[in-house]
Prior knowledge:
The structure holds 2 protein chains of 2 kinds. By secondary structure, chain A is of the alpha+beta class. Chain A has helices spanning about 1-10, 45-55, 90-95, 120-130, 155-160, 170-175, 175-180, 185-195, 205-210, 225-230, 235-250, 260-275, 280-305, 320-345, and strands spanning about 10-20, 30-40, 75-80, 80-85, 100-105, 115, 120. Chain A is built from 14 helices and 7 strands. The mean pLDDT of chain A is about 95. Chain B is globular, with a radius of gyration of 19 Å. Chain B folds into 2 domains: about 1-120, Glutathione S-transferase Yfyf (Class Pi), Chain A, domain 2 (Up-down Bundle), CATH 1.20.1050.140; about 130-280, Rossmann fold (3-Layer(aba) Sandwich), CATH 3.40.50. In chain B, helix 1 (about 20-25) links the parallel strand 1 (about 1-5) and strand 2. Chain B starts with a strand and ends in an 8-residue tail after the last helix. Classes of the chains: A alpha+beta, B alpha/beta.
Amino acid sequence: MTEIIDQHQEGKRDVTFRVFRFNPQVDSKPYFDDYTISAERGITVLRSLNYIKEHVDATLSFRAFCQAGICGSCGMRVNGISKLACTSQVWDELDKCREPGIIRVEPLRSLPMIKDLIVDMDPLVDKMTRYSNWVDSTMPLDEMGKKEFLISEEEFQQYDKATDCILCASCVSECSILRANKEYVSPAVLLKSYRMNVDSRDGIHDLRLAELVKDHGVWDCTHCYRCQESCVKSIPIMEAIHAIREDALEKRGPRDTSGAKHAEAFMEDIEKKGKLVEATLPIRTNGVVWTLRNLLPMAMKMIVKRRTPPPPPLVKSAKGIKIFRAMFREMTEHVKQDHLKSHKK
Amino acid sequence: MKRYAYYMSCINESMTKEVDRSIDFWQKDLGLEFVKLHEGTCCGGSNLDYVSPKHFALVNARNIALAEKMGLDLIVSCNTCLMTIRTAKKKLDETPALKKEVNDILKKEGLEYRGTSEVRHLLWVLVDDVGLDTIKAKVTVPLKNYRIAPFYGCHILRPSKVLGRDNPLAPSSLDELIEALGGQTIPFDHKNRCCGFHTLLVAEEESLNVAAEALEEAINAKADFIVTPCPLCHTVLDGYQSKALKQAHIDSSIPVFHISEMVGLALGYTAKQLGIKRHIVC
Lengths: 345, 282
């Protein structure tokens, strides 16, 4: 142990990279190769992989280009977390190893494997196509290229952060729902969709939003914040997802989808009782038939264990509900005024 | 005695009543006094923030202001309530115009949001305020024969700029509590992953897949039980467990405890007293 600490302070030490290997043309299943190299303080995981490829094993495959956190090519899992190899310092990673001195390097999750650390980005690109992740310009064709299409500073602020996305797919790899169902839209595509939908130069907002509220779309996000937490550009992805939902509720109404109904129920219950009425939440979200079919067996077990939520009349309102309700409604008036003002603009 | 305002989460008043009941058994033993906020309202459950950002700010400014009026910190025992109320607090503290707008309304009830009370999780109170040494000294029935899988859940860790207590990639507070109670924590990759609760009614199949992955890891690691600081995670991992495991073709089961029950067991209260018999899996 003291030897490791001494080496650490010296700024040069032997580091083992345990790298995921898989060549579907040859291998029946994936395996790991260990490469031990002498690494200097300040070296990145990507430079280490480059060294290994040049000096130890030319068959090791990975994607990389700019080496500066700009192009987004070298997304991979380092010690279990999806990130860019080019901005990950070996010395920082050494503190996070489960086995001392061994850095695990694996491909991103939730995308098909091609070879070793290379994954197929096509499913992500296909989803960007499905959700029209581009500005469909409202400028007439004959004016294009002849004049500027300006936006206000205020509007730009709305998507400034979102335009930082470099499509590294770290958020895609970390997403809980995508892991559970590959059809899910995925965080990067939601972020791009948000960015396009708030752009005043774009003409297909409604079309894009209609696609986003369908199955496997924006309402399937489970608010785990893993996308935001793993974003290599620190983009608040969840804020973008919430903004799409807010937009969907406003433009398409609170009865549009089960996701919208579920969200709106919180607003209704808080205004009425100050408390959530959980017993009827499944019915208000999905209707009686779905609830009976999906939840009846579990409800029976819960009745036996006396853990069913109380029926609506038995849900006690929060103490002081009258004055709370008056304040809640006063805020509703404020929100109406805000809407009037923004529509006038 | 350390005094705190205690936020009553909707779920703990309906489906997971055992959380507040078990805390009532041992709070005095650990020198804690939780004053229940019966005037508090639903935080919005990580939904109201986009349904109506301004109502979200008002409701939670009020929840915090009720604690501020008593000069106490607000203690929460549900991860999502914690994240939601802390998110509102951050927004109010960073946006003076919003704070003023909200306070103009709160005046009606004689309340004012000042930003003086902290909003913290029960787990943090146990580990940071009571302290691991005190807890160790109070243990009468150490959990020494138990292998325990710590499931932190999302909203006590992420977004980290709102939560900030634990390293979201390598959280330790729950592990430390387990060890202070004499239990053995097991390495658990799913400790900082999601339970799937928030999409149970919208994308049930996906939610159950998410839950099944965590349950499967704990079962394969031969854990005696999973423990979680969040009643929402508990509802999925316990209440929906058989459905999730059936969907994943896994023929097994594992009990899931609240932290309040685990503490109660180590302090000598019985499973029956603490409400553990009311779980779906026990």
